[in-house]
Amino acid sequence: MIEYLKRLGYYPRNVVWELTLACNLRCRHCGSRAGKAREDELTQAEALDVADQLVALGTERVTLSGGEPTLSPYWHKVGKRLTDRGVKVNIISNGKTWSVEHTRMAMEAGLESAAFSLDGLEAVHDRIRKRGSFAEVISAFDACREGGLPTACVTHINRLNLHTLSQMRELLGEHGVVSWQLQLGNPAGNMVDNRDLVIVPEDLLEIVPEVARLRSQDRLPRVFAADNVGYYGEYEKAIRDRGARIFFWVGCRAGCQVLGIESNGNVKGCLSLPSALNDEDQFSEGNLRERSLADIWCDDDAFSFNRQFSEDRLAGFCRTCRYNDICRGGCSWTAHSHTGNRFDNPFCYYRVAVEAGVIEP
Predict the structure, then answer these.
(1) CA count, 13 A, side-chain hemisphere, 229
(2) pTM score, two decimals?
(3) Distance from C-alpha of 361 to C-alpha of 357, rounded to nearest angstrom
(4) What residues contact 298, with CB distance under 8 A and at least 6 apart?
(5) CA dist 287 to 160, 205, 293, 321, Å?
(6) Quick one: DSSP state of residue 111?
(7) Which of 23, 73, 200, 279 could form a disulfide linkage to 34, CB 3.0–4.6 angstroms apart?
(8) Beta bridge pairs of residue 254
């Protein structure tokens, strides 16, 4: 399947950009351990230049992220620079200080939506983040709806909220949320220190059918499964189908069609992959103060964990799986977070179902 991606062409179609590592919360699951801004974050002029470089490479969609991106003094200027050049832009915020003014700025910048993180019903969300933060997120949803800006929600599935997804969907619908992305919480960053939140592989036998059921319902918010939810088995089409000709998982696209940029200009195949902040450097491909984005992206040796894939790099169940040449070990971040090996992923529905005797291999 990597050959298929090569034929489609490598270009940073979807980019998640950490504008700042500064954050006004200290969430128990934060993979980047956000809080203080990096000492060497890009200046406004540098960030606008990076935006131009993304446009030149054909980027179609950018998510402005953090930390808390609204703490960057130029978040809306970067957004407008991109949208003026035809890029679709959205922002993902914790909602803590989102206001009517933020809604106005986002709309003037041409952003197509604002997404807010909701980690459960009130007691669970506030336990994971901070007392009172649930009410702040709800207020953010309402401020956007009243201002005419479409909203989305992102939820990491953990041990405290996995049984309440249906109730959460009802709540989001009541506040006009248009789309809802569900992703598995991984033991990375702060969540390493809060393993009581981390699901176990067997939980996929409940989570995957539930996500498929929620997606089958014709109502808002529309439910989307993130790239670390799956893979294969009887629910794959229901989980993955978005109306495209290919409705199954075709492997991690980090460094092939997906790109992550850290606030100091470091480039990774996916923003979620660990970096120096977590004492890792294997996924860092270069820095935008030292090399242009085109030089980094077009380097034959860059993003080798995906671009130079071969089946003999797989380990564990993944090595002998019938889907191994297509799947390539699933989500790189999830596999590495749980096993330290990007090519051995225990959080796969097919793997868990086979090992539990639920389906035939």
Answers:
(1) 30
(2) 0.96
(3) 9
(4) none
(5) 38, 41, 8, 36
(6) -
(7) 23
(8) 258
pLDDT, tens digit, for every residue of 86-100?
Answer: 999 999 999 999 999
Burial zone of 230 (CB within 10 Å; 0-12 exposed, 13-18 middle, 19+ buried): buried
Output the DSSP codes for 18-67.
Answer: E---B-S---TT-TT--BSPPTTPPPHHHHHHHHHHHHHTT--EEEEESS
The H or E element containing residue 141 is helix 133-147
Q: Which alpha helices (H) appear in 114-184, and where do they start and end?
A: 122-128, 133-147, 165-174
Contact 347, 330 (CB under 8 A): yes
- Alpha carbon 60 to its chain centroid, in Å, reads 16
Query: Which residues lie closer than 8 Å to 234 by C-beta, 6 or more apart?
Result: 359
254: DSSP letter: B
Count of C-beta atoms within a 10 Å radius of residue 54:
23
Rounded CA separation 227/231 (Å): 9
**Beta-ladder partners of 154:** 117, 181
Determine the Cα–Cα distance for residues 47 and 28; give it in Å rounded to an integer.
29
Residue 2's SS3 state is helix
**Strand-pair partners of 223:** 180
Residues in the chain: 361
Read off the pLDDT of residues 185-194 as tens digits, 9 standing for 90 and up: 999 999 999 9
- In degrees, rounded to 5, the angle at the alpha carbon of residue 232 between the alpha carbons of residues 13 and 189 is 60
* Amino acid at residue number 4: Y
Which tens digits make up the pLDDT trace of 197-233? 999 999 999 999 999 999 999 999 999 999 999 999 9
